[in-house]
Amino acid sequence: MTPGGVALAPTLLALAIAPIALAAEPVLGSPSEVRNFIRDARFAEAEARARELLAEAERRHGPRSLEAAEALDVLVEALWNGGRSNEPETRALAERAVAIKDERLGGDGLGVATSLNNLGIVCSDSGDYAAARSAYERALSIRERRLGPSDPEVARTLNNLGVLSIHLGRYAEARSFDERALAIRERARAPADRDLATSLSNLALVLQEVGDYSGARPLYERALELREKALGPDHPHVARSLSSLAWLLAATGDLSGARPLYERALGIFERTGRGKNPAIAHVLTGLGTLLLASGEPAGARALFERALAIREETHDPDHVHRAETQSHLANALAAAGETAKARAVHLGTRARRRSPTCAFARWVRATRSPFSIGPSRSARGPLEASTRSWPRPSPASRRSG
């Protein structure tokens, strides 16, 4: 559940990723080298190289130089791609990049838009939606003025505004942003099919959130195909697509179809070293809820405990995502007959009043948990199309540029 908004599916919302040079061999120690590390999901290496770039730029050109700002941009991109948007340092670095570029380029420089888009992502991932919208709208204004309304860079910012609108439950607005971004990217498809996949995923999420599951599914499937083709089968963005499609299948009652997709997504995240990233907590939660619905509370408990450990590292005690993960764990404990432990966990959820549990979890609880309210229903029926589901963290297949 977003502050003042609605609960979202565990779909990992796709923000626009900064363009990454794929053709020529990057110059060692250049921003393009860092972005190639990010593209390959080598986030620790990307961060280390970006910090080296920043130190060198400050030494040679000064801490208020454009070179320093460009190094700050790629460092911020490495940090939020690595799941560290919520850290105060990340926002401070993003704000510093914007300030330097404003000073050196003026308020209308194209380079300012890149830094503003990064800042918007960090603010959105941290729940500061007002600051995110301000940054995105300014970036969009710059890009439309300087590049025209149909440039692929305009689509990046439209994409991120669409994500923000989804967070706020403004689905008609989100659909307008996403459809415009998708039209731009369809026209400019090569060589960035992964960007097209981002727009397809975001539009699918809008349709999913308004209950149009049949409309969302082919978009998710096409996005998955494009990402596998562009990035290979073991990239974290592929895992995001798998998780999104798995949730949709589970929400329509196809638990046997959803499970292998969740398991494959989890395997990808584990192999790419993202075990402490908030993105994996969503996959763990989705798979855990599916196991609970299938009558496997012990397996569900283990997954929810892993997800909660990630949430405790990456979110404040009162954060809604942390509260919801505790609620899922309480359901698993209750289903296993550990009622006292379940109640203790449930009562320890400080933000529970702000965060109704997702539709899928309510469905499981109504059929299996001693915390049920009202008559139980069949444990095999699909969710109502109008229901909402659990929220996203921030990142995701996403981001700036």
Write up this protein.
With 401 residues, the protein is mostly helical. It is 67% helix and 0% strand. It has 17 helices and no strands. The chain has helices spanning 31-39, 43-61, 66-81, 88-105, 110-125, 129-147, 152-167, 171-187, 193-209, 213-231, 236-251, 255-271, 278-293, 297-314, 320-335, 339-347, 359-368. It starts with 30 loop residues before the first helix and ends in a 33-residue tail after the last helix.
Order of helices and strands: HHHHHHHHHHHHHHHHH
Whole-number average pLDDT? 80
Distance between the termini: 27 Å
DSSP summary, beta strand count: 0
Classify the helix fraction into a percent range. Answer: 55-70%
Task: Choose one word for the global shape.
Answer: globular
Largest sheet: none
Radius of gyration: 21 Å
Briefly note the structural class of the backbone.
Answer: mainly alpha
Strand content is under 5%
Low-confidence blocks of residues: 1-8, 17-28, 350-401
DSSP helix count?
A: 17
